[in-house]
Design a protein that fits this description.
alpha+beta, five-stranded antiparallel β-sheet, 10 helices, about 45% helix, UCP028451, CHP02453
Length: about 230
């Protein structure tokens, strides 16, 4: 099934689930959930098809509705949103895309959520040496009009081995390098939503291209890929 719309019925189901987040209600309405899940999956597949036009996607992953409550204070059994991610292809294309559908809290996110220790150190060393390239990309007006400011957690002062007075410490101390764009319910339910998602993902490419170059080279700019 080809689906390029998020329906009000899917939103209404998620709202009802938020009010009735228990196994009895969910089992009673499981057939309705399965229908909306299939429609949403089709929507995500269309998002990937759009991505494939201007990027190379290795896989799309839809996240399950069931929550892992073992280590959570919140024991409600179900998520009240749909979500999925899109992984870029191979070792040379870094970064990833994420889309969450939730009434009142829909957003797309891109970037580097939890880079491994080696990648994080490489990024920090790059910014210690020269951050002019990354600043040019993320401060470009058309980029900022879509994605706003760089987001993500960081250390409070400076990572071990780095000068807390370094002029690029605002970038060096980060542990995450992500961008988020929020959408209103009206935008999500519009016919143009899927186009806006793709427009957003397409606009992140200068950032991905730069970060991929950093993560596939050493500080001399020489490739570290086989």
């Amino acid at each position: 099934m080809n689906n390029s719309l998020i329906t009000k019925e899917a939103f209404d189901f998620l709202k009802d689930l938020a009010k009735n987040n228990n196994k009895d209600w969910f089992q009673t309405h499981k057939a309705t959930f399965k229908k909306h899940e299939a429609d949403i999956k089709s929507f995500y597949q269309n998002v990937q098809e759009n991505l494939d036009v201007h990027d190379e996607i290795e896989k799309m992953k839809m996240f399950r509705i069931y929550r892992d409550v073992r280590f959570s204070k919140d024991k409600t059994p179900y998520k009240t949103h749909f979500a999925g991610s899109f992984s870029r292809l191979g070792a040379r294309l870094r970064g990833g895309y994420y889309l969450r559908i939730k009434p009142g809290e829909t957003f797309v996110a891109t970037g580097f959520w939890e880079p491994n220790k080696e990648d994080l150190f490489r990024i920090r060393k790059e910014f210690e040496m020269d951050a002019s390239g990354i600043r040019k990309v993320i401060n470009e007006q058309s980029f900022k009009s879509i994605w706003g400011e760089l987001q993500g957690d960081g250390v409070k002062t400076a990572p071990k081995g780095f000068d807390k007075e370094h002029p690029n410490i605002d970038l060096i101390k980060r542990k995450q390098f992500i961008f988020v764009r929020n959408f209103s319910d009206k935008e999500v339910l519009s016919k143009t939503f899927i186009k806006e998602v793709d427009k957003s993902f397409k606009a992140i490419r200068p950032y991905f291209d730069l970060m991929s170059d950093i993560l596939t080279t050493n500080l001399n700019g020489e490739s570290i890929l086989d």
